[in-house]
Write a structure and sequence with these properties.
- By secondary structure, this protein is mainly α.
- It has three helices and no strands.
Protein backbone atom coordinates (compact mmCIF):
# COMPACT_ATOMS: atom_id res chain seq x y z
CA UNK A 1 0.00 0.00 0.00
CA UNK A 2 1.44 3.34 -1.05
CA UNK A 3 1.08 6.54 0.94
CA UNK A 4 -0.46 8.27 -2.08
CA UNK A 5 -3.20 5.62 -2.20
CA UNK A 6 -3.89 6.09 1.50
CA UNK A 7 -4.00 9.89 1.23
CA UNK A 8 -6.68 9.63 -1.47
CA UNK A 9 -9.08 7.89 0.93
CA UNK A 10 -11.48 9.56 3.35
CA UNK A 11 -11.23 9.19 7.13
CA UNK A 12 -14.11 6.69 7.17
CA UNK A 13 -12.43 4.56 4.53
CA UNK A 14 -9.18 4.72 6.48
CA UNK A 15 -10.92 3.63 9.68
CA UNK A 16 -12.44 0.61 7.96
CA UNK A 17 -9.13 -0.27 6.31
CA UNK A 18 -7.39 0.01 9.69
CA UNK A 19 -9.95 -2.32 11.25
CA UNK A 20 -9.37 -4.91 8.53
CA UNK A 21 -5.60 -4.70 8.96
CA UNK A 22 -5.85 -5.03 12.75
CA UNK A 23 -7.95 -8.19 12.34
CA UNK A 24 -5.45 -9.62 9.89
CA UNK A 25 -2.61 -8.72 12.26
CA UNK A 26 -4.37 -10.58 15.06
CA UNK A 27 -4.85 -13.63 12.85
CA UNK A 28 -1.19 -13.60 11.84
CA UNK A 29 -0.10 -13.40 15.49
CA UNK A 30 -2.37 -16.36 16.24
CA UNK A 31 -0.89 -18.34 13.35
CA UNK A 32 2.62 -17.55 14.57
CA UNK A 33 1.80 -18.74 18.07
CA UNK A 34 0.44 -22.03 16.78
CA UNK A 35 3.29 -22.52 14.31
CA UNK A 36 1.11 -22.23 11.20
CA UNK A 37 2.48 -18.93 9.86
CA UNK A 38 3.83 -19.39 6.33
CA UNK A 39 4.44 -15.84 5.10
CA UNK A 40 6.48 -14.18 7.84
CA UNK A 41 7.08 -11.04 5.75
CA UNK A 42 3.36 -10.28 5.85
CA UNK A 43 3.60 -9.47 9.59
CA UNK A 44 6.06 -6.66 8.89
CA UNK A 45 4.04 -5.40 5.93
CA UNK A 46 0.82 -5.23 7.99
CA UNK A 47 2.59 -3.44 10.84
CA UNK A 48 3.93 -0.80 8.47
CA UNK A 49 0.58 -0.35 6.72
CA UNK A 50 -1.11 0.19 10.09
CA UNK A 51 1.47 2.82 11.02
CA UNK A 52 1.12 4.50 7.64
CA UNK A 53 -2.67 4.70 7.95
CA UNK A 54 -2.52 6.01 11.52
CA UNK A 55 -0.01 8.68 10.52
CA UNK A 56 -2.08 9.90 7.60
CA UNK A 57 -5.28 9.83 9.68
CA UNK A 58 -3.59 12.03 12.28
CA UNK A 59 -2.32 14.37 9.57
CA UNK A 60 -5.82 14.72 8.11
CA UNK A 61 -7.30 15.49 11.55
CA UNK A 62 -4.64 18.11 12.26
CA UNK A 63 -5.14 19.85 8.91
CA UNK A 64 -8.92 19.77 9.35
CA UNK A 65 -8.64 21.50 12.74
CA UNK A 66 -6.13 24.11 11.57
Amino acid sequence: MKASDVRAKTLDELRSELEVLKKEQFNLRFQKATGQLENTARVRQIRRDVARIQTIMRDKRVTANA
